[in-house]
Amino acid sequence: MKRREDLSTPRQNRRLGVHYDPDAFGQFSESIARYLGTARFLVWQSVVIAAWVIWNYVLPESVQFDPWARGLVLLTLVLSLQASYAAPLILLAQNRQEERDRSTVETDRKVAERTQADTEFLAREIASVRLSLGDVATTSDLEDHFEKITAAIERMTARLDELEARVHKEGAE
Fold first, then answer.
1. Would the pTM count as exceeding 0.85?
2. Can you give the residue range of the structural domain that contains 148?
3. Are the C-beta atoms of 66 and 72 separated by less than 8 Å?
4. Could you report the average pLDDT of every consecutive run of 10 residues in the chain (173 residues)?
């Protein structure tokens, strides 16, 4: 192990020169996982396995590539290889889906918080408007005051008319 003088920076990762885009690989694995989970895949796999078994059981040994007598070793190997690749690809697709679900849940939570805050603000504003409207004069209040003022003016006018009539009467006497 080589000693380093500067311990403030981490060592560089040593790679073998294999570089790939994790997102592209993830999308590729999701497409494979989606296909492996379809009825079409199961039907095609069943057809291929049935043809494989029939080929290696019915036809003469000279054309068999995976003889029945050996226990279809090649078929077992192919299916094991398929399973060994399918399982990690499916797990990778599930992990990516979980990340998307987590992100969606987080976004939904933030939207719900904003919506709740906005709703509470609007409720306070409506309550404030209702309180303010309680102090505003209504049409019936204004009509009542207008009738009182009109009656007062009519009384004052009548009184002024009486006073003028008296003044004219005294002035005429």
1. no
2. 138-173
3. yes
4. 67 67 85 88 94 91 86 91 89 89 95 96 93 81 90 94 86 74
